[in-house]
Amino acid sequence: MVGVGVGVGVGAGVGAGAGGVPDNLVSVRCLLHRETLGATRRLQRRLHFTTHLVSRLGLETDLKGHYGCVNCLEWNTDGTILASASDDLRIILWDPFRYKTKNIITTGHNGNIFSVKFITPHVLATCAADFTVRVQVVGEPRDNTYIGSECSCHYGRVKRLTTTPECPNLVWSAGEDGLILQHDIRTSHTCKSDSPIVLVNLLNQVGRYAEAKCLAINPRRPEQLAVGANDFYVRLYDRRMIKLSKLQNSSSPSENPTMSGLERNLFCRSSQMDTDNNIPRGCVQYFAPGHLSTQDNDSTHQKKATTYLTFSSDGNELLVNLGSEQVYLFDINTNRRATLLESFIIQHNHSYEKIMANNTNGFNAAGNSDVGKPEVETKNGTVSTDANVSKEYILPKNVKDIKEKANKEVHDNNYTAAVHLYNQAISLCSDCAVLYSNRAAALMRRNWAGDVYAAIRDCYTAIHYDPYHVKSHFRLAKALMELKKAKEAHECLIYFKDKFPKQANAHAVWLLQKDINLALNNLESSAFADEQNDYDLEPVSQSERQLRVSSNDYCHRYLGHCNTTTDIKEANFLGQDSQFIVAGSDDGYFFIWSRQTGNIIRCLKGDESIVNCIQVHPTMCLIATSGIESIVRLWSPRPEDGGAEPREILDVADAAIANQQRMQADPFEAMLLNITYQGGGNVRGSREGGPGARSGSPERDPPIACRTS
Questions:
Q1: Listed residues 255, 286, 317: the one ending a domain
Q2: pTM of structure
Q3: Which of 138, 179, 374, 572 has the smallest count of CB within 10 Å of its CB?
Q4: Cα separations in angstroms, 434 against 253, 390, 403, 540
Q5: What is the 3-state secondary structure (H, E, C) of 656-700?
């Protein structure tokens, strides 16, 4: 075990950055690989990724051989081969320890390759923009390669493939024609309409504009298939409950060789597709960020689409990279509904209205804050309504110091730094209401995509731990108003006034009530006008509407990268225990987050333009990245000699702020911002008051909502 530990340090350090590597150092890497293969799982977990190893990550080498953008990377099962595929229509198999090319495969595709997967050590599957899925059979490194079977049943670009060792003969493909096809490589395939290969047809549920962008099989429960589309909903299917159906009306375009790809795609969407409705009730769950699933209309400039998704190693969590948004983590075993108005508020207000209706002296009833109050459930059970006093929480000194630093950052309008510190404090004291409430205040002022909704979640968490925390209740109403949810904000403010009668007449409360009343009046006046407008919205099925309403909310989110330019941008777990999250970005960087806190712990420059692909070695602390450049890069821990990594981004906060401004700007502004930032211009303005950030006028920002505790 000592030898393996030494090997990690030496082997990782020797390859850092260099082009030519001495043979004796290459041998060290190969010996390390041999030892790792024979190591126990416990030892592999320890050697895979740790905070110390991540802090030392640096460029090990560049793998050069492609002539176009490298759109996909894939490690084989034991990590001895790295496969890369490119716009040059070729696959290159690399020896990642000797930095040599093992094989170059001419695939036969005539469009950009988007995905490559190992089916067996000598069989690979690829898909591309030419609408085809191909099986590539590879012999020994010195043997010639040849093209295996081909499937051209898709009517759009095929964006992703997925496989599982549990079903070694099956491959699933996701196409922009809205179809998820299942391919059995044991059988011959001639792309005829009588082949039952359609597993999921999104066109039936979502409408004719549906596109499948990505998919993944649960490694622990291979019957579960997750699908990402050109919307913000992730669909998790149970394959055991789905019967394969036939591809309807496929004969006409396939029999017409002069029909272009675009014409085939339009024909597919205009035709009556699978009429079997092979998705029975109960075989699919939906997941979506709550601030998106609870909105009536999507008012952002950018179109949301899921660019990548993957399961954690234990199969319990689903990581999703959402285009024009953030990276989200979903717990697939917990029903976490997106809620803007909790039931205890509704129940209280309903009881209060009954009392007011039955009481001739309504003023006195309103002044009695204990009348009709339900008990609020807390972590330790229920809290009596008699004790209308906020609990005092004694923070440990180290957490108190972090909290005070965070409060100072809020005072200085440096909200990103404040959120970072509150995240750190909450990871140490996860049941302190004040920390959640203060973070909610910082999130509301920062106002990145999804921040206000995250603040609502924090307010409810704070109330859960301390039902009488005044600021949390008020911030909840204010955050709902920020989301333009006037009705929900009105209900929360009614609850607030009755629960805290001493604060009911505060000027801040009066201002918020005035804004709510104005918004409610505008809603009533615009209701009739909305009914007269005939919006040309794509109809969806009734079952689709129900599934969207019942979609599960995220448990964590990771912010700082930008995902607007490409629709193949990946996000992955780092470590055998999935303790880190990594994703590429439009600024050419890739970001590494702490899974627990959500804080960025490392940022490295992986491409001169955009980092799309990030794949992690199955057993070693080794990462492969690629993007718009024709280069594949390998990253591993640098030696502990104190040397700096030239590709490390030191001002991570600036990079994160610039990326969030890009995502919130319209496309033209984003282009200008990208030029300015890459040219070294100042994109932050005064602290965080640039585009997409809230300046917060003192006259209109109630003190009760913005002061930290």
A1: 286
A2: 0.85
A3: 374
A4: 63, 10, 9, 43
A5: HHHHHHHHHCCHHHHHHHHHHHHCCCCCCCCCCCCCCCCCCCCCC
Q: How many CB atoms lie within 10 A of CB 377?
A: 12
For β-strands 376-378 and 100-106, DSSP reports them as: unpaired
Dist CA 235 CA 597 (whole Å) = 26
Please state the φ and ψ torsions of residue 110, each to the nearest 5 degrees: -120, 25
User: Is residue 22 situated within a structural domain?
Assistant: no
d(CA 233, CA 227): 9
Residue 545, classed as helix, strand or coil, is helix
| Exposure letters 277-287 (e unless 16+ CB within 10 A, then b) | ebbeeeebbbb
Q: Assign residue 367 the CATH number of its domain.
A: 1.25.40.10
Question: Which pairing describes strands 57-64 and 631-637: parallel, antiparallel, or unpaired?
Answer: antiparallel
| 516 in the same domain as 442 | yes
3-state helix, strand, coil in the chain (%, to 5): 35, 25, 40
CA distances from 187 to 151, 197, 243, 450 (A): 12, 12, 18, 47
Q: How does DSSP classify residue 619? A: S
Model confidence pLDDT, tens digit, residues 195-250: 889 999 999 888 889 999 999 999 999 999 999 999 999 999 999 999 999 887 64
pLDDT in tens, 82-113: 999 999 999 999 999 999 999 999 999 999 99
Neighbouring-strand partners of residue 625: 614, 633
Question: Helices (H), strands (E): how many in the chain?
Answer: 21, 31
Q: 517 and 381 in one domain?
A: yes
DSSP 261-274: HHHHHHHHHHS---
